[in-house]
Design goal:
Blueprint: H1 5-8, E1 10-11, E2 36-37, H2 48-80, H3 83-112, H4 114-118, H5 136-166, H6 169-175, H7 178-181, H8 183-197, H9 199-208, H10 221-254
């Protein structure tokens, strides 16, 4: 058991929660006046070898759950809706609109409430494996920018789809630019990767009881289970939007 309190305990009122659909950030040092105590999960009381095992176990469970969710969405969407309805009602409109709005709002939040996001960034040495270079402020900033740009790319794809739907088919085919079609799948794919990369902040919230700011209060472990399901859903939808929007764009190009 290491002696570093940052690794073993959370700061009262100065640790983590769900930021974007799934976010990142925290301080690398603990103020001397902070009151330290065990997280609700109790994982920060375990030996480091168990903490690191739980960290990788959560990632493995996230990957397996997301894979199953993606397969389920693929099966249900094609069998119940058909390709055309799935494309025009969901892949090119509804899903990127919802996901884009959430990620743009989350990215803005990284700058409006940057300290709260910094509060959930794992300190150096957490789980005995966390030694990522760069300050919490740096990681909060660049992830916020990527969320805004990626979310904006999804919203751009929605606007473009509505504009193209307003044209007759001949004009739409002539004016349809292949490079513009790729903005949506690239944006969704980028946000998928980002969401995977910032997962340690969410794991830190669970294992060390971190919360975003002084006003959030202690989070029951049930919150993290719900948050995990939400994260699986976001990852699944981002992957499906990236995959299917590229598939449809490539199909149009071949035609």
């Amino acid at each position: 058991m290491p002696s570093n309190n940052n690794v073993l305990h959370r700061r009262r009122g100065n640790t983590s929660s769900l930021s974007s659909p799934i976010t990142t950030a925290s301080k690398s040092t603990t103020p001397s006046s902070s009151v330290l105590h065990v997280s609700p999960s109790g994982i920060d009381e375990l030996p480091i070898i168990f903490q690191s095992s739980i960290f990788f176990g959560i990632y493995a469970l996230l990957g397996a759950s997301t894979y199953i969710s993606i397969q389920t969405i693929d099966a249900l969407s094609k069998s119940t809706l058909g390709l055309e309805k799935w494309r025009y009602q969901y892949i090119e409109t509804t899903l990127p609109l919802l996901l884009g709005a959430v990620y743009v709002a989350a990215g803005i939040g990284h700058f409006i409430s940057s300290q709260e996001f910094c509060d959930i960034y794992p300190p150096i040495g957490t789980w005995g494996i966390w030694y990522l270079p760069g300050s919490a402020e740096f990681h909060v900033a660049w992830t916020g920018i990527v969320e805004m740009v990626g979310g904006g790319g999804l919203l751009f794809g929605v606007v473009r789809s509505f504009i193209m739907m307003g044209y007759n088919n001949d004009i739409a085919e002539e004016d349809d630019d292949w490079s513009l079609k790729l903005i949506q799948p690239i944006s969704a794919g980028t946000l998928f990767v980002l969401t995977v990369l910032v997962t340690p902040a969410n794991i830190y919230m669970y294992t060390h009881g971190a919360t975003m700011g002084d006003n959030m209060g202690e989070l029951d472990v049930s919150f993290h289970y719900v948050r995990f399901v939400v994260q699986v859903l976001f990852l699944s939808l981002l992957f499906v939007v990236a995959k299917d929007s590229f598939f449809f764009a490539w199909g149009d190009e071949l035609d």
